[in-house]
Amino acid sequence: MDIQAHVICIGNEILLGHISNTNAEYISRRLSSIGIKTSKHISVPDEEDTIIHAIRSSLSDSDIVILTGGLGPTVDDITLGCISKTLDRKLILQKKVAENIKTHFKKRNLKMPKNNLRQALIPEGATAVLNNIGSAPGLIIPIPSPSPFSKREKVRMKKKILFALPGVPFEMRDMFEQAIIPFLKKTFKPGLIIKSRVIKITGLPESRVNEKIKDILNIKGNIQMGIYPHPEEIAVKITVTEKNKKLANTAINKIEKRIESRLGDHIFAYDDEGLEEITGRLLLRTKKSIALAESCTGGLLANRITDVPGSSRYFKAGVVTYSNESKNKLLDIPMEIIKKYGAVSRQVAASMAKNIRLLAETDIGIGISGIAGPGNGTAKKPVGLVYIALSAKRKTICKEFRFLGQRKIIKFKSTQAALNMIRKALSKARP
Amino acid sequence: MDIQAHVICIGNEILLGHISNTNAEYISRRLSSIGIKTSKHISVPDEEDTIIHAIRSSLSDSDIVILTGGLGPTVDDITLGCISKTLDRKLILQKKVAENIKTHFKKRNLKMPKNNLRQALIPEGATAVLNNIGSAPGLIIPIPSPSPFSKREKVRMKKKILFALPGVPFEMRDMFEQAIIPFLKKTFKPGLIIKSRVIKITGLPESRVNEKIKDILNIKGNIQMGIYPHPEEIAVKITVTEKNKKLANTAINKIEKRIESRLGDHIFAYDDEGLEEITGRLLLRTKKSIALAESCTGGLLANRITDVPGSSRYFKAGVVTYSNESKNKLLDIPMEIIKKYGAVSRQVAASMAKNIRLLAETDIGIGISGIAGPGNGTAKKPVGLVYIALSAKRKTICKEFRFLGQRKIIKFKSTQAALNMIRKALSKARP
Question: Which of A23, A49, A99, B146 is most buried, with most CB under 10 Å away?
Fold first, then answer.
């Protein structure tokens, strides 16, 4: 059985391009994790005819229809009315919902605007899902089949289900996890599950990755392969549809091993982890501490490293020396060296790395000096030229990079390359 | 004349929830800026029948249909074939496009895989838009009306236009700005234009902003008002539909003045500008330089300030002192002070601000010390407690904040508050 869902998002702000539609993405990702396939996303403005037409056509084409948005207390919020008209069911005031809305305001010591009680007018036969965060309830509406919507449909299920959820992402997510996922699992007992793994690669261009694993990327059947480029990072995604978790994991592991054997230590992480988490874990495991001296990255490397909870156990200090004087004053780099080689040079980056290591008394020091642009590039030293040095007690190494892109991209790529240098140095180190 | 567009995004990765659909958002925002209304977003998987059905139904319901995705070189990329079938037009190899694809690979010193020439097979009557970044061309396909799609339509225009653009966001955006926007402006001379302005507010909670401008937020007619909360920032958006730019600007300015009179200097910026740009401009105008000493923000403030091109003219140096030792060594803060008051204290933040100002010889010094969490909070000093100090020659001020949220949110909110303190100090200063 192939259960299909449509996601309909309602709201002028989506069609004006004022907000990102993260709800559709989130719902589809969670549905696919329990084996339900999303076959369409639709976004429509707050207009009655358009909404009714969209609900009608989705109920005809799919088993599950999930609406988000338009459940608020204002006159613009017309989702409840549209559902009532589409299904020809009366709106009835549900006491439990009304109480919950009143409590919501009481808890916050706020006076409830009268309008808010409109949110308790629920279509006949609907089950309300209480909102733990805001005031708008969610709805679960089973629709018996054959229904007025069965005309064009291939009958896949005994009944269809229409869900209505608030548009505010964190209210919607809370409700989806607490009520909708458990309900779907119980109702549909999906026969197949979908599982994904992401393999993250750095230090190789996309075309090289493509070449090395072309045959694997072309695998078909119950496996979907994808390759997604990010700045200085390639994500290869394996998605498997299988009868159960065990079979899915076996299939994923098999492909993963083949990819690992071809890409070796260009692979730096799996799934949600970034280079900062990986580097952090390696620093903890090898019991090394680190300090940074940044110029063109302007603090982004320190920021990424300190985004990781617990990073104070290995990250001790950073400096952002954005002028020649500060390189001299804070890091004790002789003005002659800066003048002789230029601030953006192998020599200065190496001195930055070494001197911050000594100053902060850490095991590792990183120095980054480059030209992030858009100004200050020359023919010899163009925008995107970046030197990154890593200094340890035994030696200091320095690498030259030439990155393409705008200022923020060059900053980010530089931190990716620096984190990868730390990762490579520590992967070899013994704890 | 009310010109309407549909945006259709093609790709399994969207329906699996693997990627955010930022293309639909971007396209709608840009369309609305030139007076074209988006009436629907549709996302469909890489399946021929579904794609053909979506194109057919959108061509029937709207004047402009913009497809993105599925133009790549692999067998999964079937958009060109689907267009050819929907319109019943042959695919013909366009030499100009083929040459451009070959050049794309030659420039990068890469061998062109044979597959890529598939991208030069273009439906009859289509104009190709060359890709400046990748290899997939875009397409502009005028469809004369009455057309096979005119059955259900209300005829709004003499002809309809179908566009096909690459799915990779930066390729799509480049093409959209370079070719599609100019083409649409020339072809449709839209009768009404839509203009928006965002007013950015900080230092007030959303509920207070709401209260102060409630009547203005309720304005209707050709004006749409929106209020969007962000961390330590509220955006109020005014959107006006008018006959021409002048009328639109007049309407916007009128509302803007009313909002300004109520929110005063809580307003810090308009449209796309962030606090870092505003602060940067104020530093330039008042000819002041700045240095930073960060603890819990871990370099994020330096990073945000250096995201602004040209920031080296006022930003001189930063330190990230993530341990007591580094506060002592790099900033010369006596260990007794740190032990007596704690690293997270008014006294230490003030010393950080003052000492970095003296060390870097700048006009302003900022010191930030707090607890970003998730660990290390206590009853007296909970997660989210942050001290921010601003030191100038004449005096040093320090403020206490209690932020809610997760680690990254607390870091970000702290930098918002710090930038706002700089803004307020400089707004009073004379150049």
Answer: A23
Structural domain tally of chain A? 3
ipTM: 0.77
- pTM, full prediction: 0.78
> Which residues in B lie closer than 8 A to residue A311 (C-beta atoms)?
298, 322
Each residue of A143-196: pLDDT tens digit? 986 555 554 444 444 689 999 999 988 889 999 999 999 999 888 876 777 888
Question: Would you call A16 an interface residue with chain B, using a CB distance cutoff of 8 Å?
Answer: yes
Does residue A164 share a domain with residue A55?
A: yes
Among B134, B163, B188, the domain boundary falls at B188
CA-to-CA distance for A63 and A154, rounded, in angstroms? Answer: 10
- Sequence-ordered list of residues with C-beta below 8 angstroms from that of B317, at least 6 positions apart, any chain: A319, A320, A321, A322, A323, A326, A329, A330, B291, B292, B356, B359, B360, B362
Virtual torsion, Cα A327, A333, A335, A336, nearest 10 deg = -150
The residue length of chain A stands at: 431
Among residues B61, B63, B67, B18, the alpha carbon closest in space to that of B42 is found at B67
Chain A CB within 8 Å of residue B40 CB: yes
For residue A25, the chain B residues in CB contact (below 8 A) are 14, 17, 19-21
Q: For chain B, what is the largest distance between any 2 Cα atoms, rounded to a whole number of angstroms?
A: 85
Residues B171 and B43 in one domain: yes
Task: Among A20, A41, A44, select the one facing B25 at the smallest CB separation.
Answer: A20
Sort strands B4-10 and B121-123 into parallel, antiparallel or unpaired. Answer: unpaired
Residues B340 and B371 in one domain: yes
Last residue of a domain, one of A188, A210, A239: A188
Which of A230, A232, A174, A224 has the alpha carbon at shortest distance from A203? Answer: A232
Neighbouring C-alpha atoms within 13 Å toward the C-beta of A131: 28
- Looking at the structure, do residues B54 and B165 belong to the same domain, yes or no? yes
Q: Quick one: pLDDT at residue A327?
A: 96
Residue B142 tokens, joined? 């005028």
Please identify among residues 124-163 of chain B the ones whose CB lies closer than 8 Å to any CB of chain A: none
- In angstroms, what is the C-alpha Rg of chain B? 27
